[in-house]
Amino acid sequence: MPNTFFGLNIGTLGIHAANAQLNVTANNTANEHTEGYSRQKAAQQATTPIRAYQKYGMIGSGVEVTTIYRVRNEYYDVKYQENQTRYGENNARYYYLFKVEDLFNEEKVEGFTREFDRFYEAVQEMSKDASNVTTKTTYMNYAESLLEYMQEIKKDLQLEQEDLNAEVSNNVSSINSYAQEIASLNKQINVVELTGANANELRDRRSVILDKLSQIVEITTSEDTFKNGKTEFTVKIGGATLVDNYNYFTLKVESRDDFVHDEDTVGLYDIKWSYGDYFNPTSQGIGGTLKGLLEVRDGNNGVQPDDPAVKPVEYKGIPYYIEQINVFLKNFTDTVNKIHQAGENVYGESAADTPLFVYDDLSKKYIINPEVKEDPNLLATAYKRTDGVSQNDLLEDLYKTKSSVAYNGGTAVEFLRSVVTDIAVDTRKNKHMMTNYENMATTIDNQRLSVMGVDKDEEAANLVKYQEMFELCSKVISIMAEIYDTLIRETGV
Length: 493
Fold this sequence. Notes:
By secondary structure, this protein is α+β, with helices and mostly antiparallel strands. The protein has helices at 6-30, 74-103, 106-128, 133-193, 200-216, 289-298, 318-340, 370-374, 393-400, 412-452, 456-491, and strands at residues 40-46, 50-51, 58-59, 63-70, 220-225, 231-237, 240-244, 247-248, 251-255, 269-273, 357-360, 365-368.
């Protein structure tokens, strides 16, 4: 049997429920533009009815708010994060390949053509007076200028490799920072939810971090819930645990002791777990920005490194393009040296042991033979010298090499243009893929927002609805108070 003030209690519960709904509505409206915010709803239900012991049986006892929960679809989160991984990988490759492409721009090609032509023009000038020391010196100067031009491109590529290396370190630091924050949030979430409440804002924050982490490296997550309400949340990368609920593991970078490629920049980083295990972000099933950075930094188009334990990066990266320049330099110097060493100098001496170009192991580059540079008369300008008369047959053959197909089946200029084409194709491919994943991210995020996003019109309607609920419940209390006042005054109940 309900007590005398049963009606007042129902009205009071209604006011409390309306107030809770209005608070949720206000919170949603205030966080409309908050990154990662999931709109919230207050779940309400009728309270347990009371048996009246009359013919009409059970009497409703009011309403209560049971929980405030966030509206979110985890399926869209997983799809978004998977897409972010692919976007991060292609975006990183595109950004740095574009910079590499810029090093081989049309101006560079024209610059190479100019230096290449000047060398062969010097060959022609030398053929007019093979005994002239000035023309020989000019010839060597242009040869040296061509070598330095190509070496400068190599140097620029190595500087890009250094930038990539620094970015690898930055991304590893970001992974560690995110892992620490996720572990901390896991603990905070449990502290709240073990009381029976929902840690909506904390879970939103964790979701934002997971979105950011997924762009750097591919992740898999899992969450187990126990009977007491405690949860255990884990994050894995590359099959290894990064976050184990309240605990997290970190990655570190270590400078290589040896070179994977002969002309790699000194101090390139390998990535390891803090407990010492090797971490390979380029392996199958791992993507993200980190993988893209390492592929451009280390990519050799599948050429097996000297160390058989190191998995080759089957992608055209900076080592590949450095190697292409080396291919040109070797073919060019070998071609010129072969003709030069078959001849004789003005002293009538064989040039067999006096190449024009030599490789300097210390600087790791081709240079003009110091002996020839010091004495230009050591240059061979003819195959044979007869009766003191200079012959030009050697120089004529040397000039013909300008249009020879000694550079992977093409001329020197064609070879360089093919390298430029390779870069352009790779750059455009990654730009296309990046754009596709960027568009997909927008589509998936719109789908997420259709579920979790705040709808101003819906919240405005809720504001009116729950305001009316509040006012009507207040009116119920007011009317019931008048009734009870009358009953007490008139009947003494």
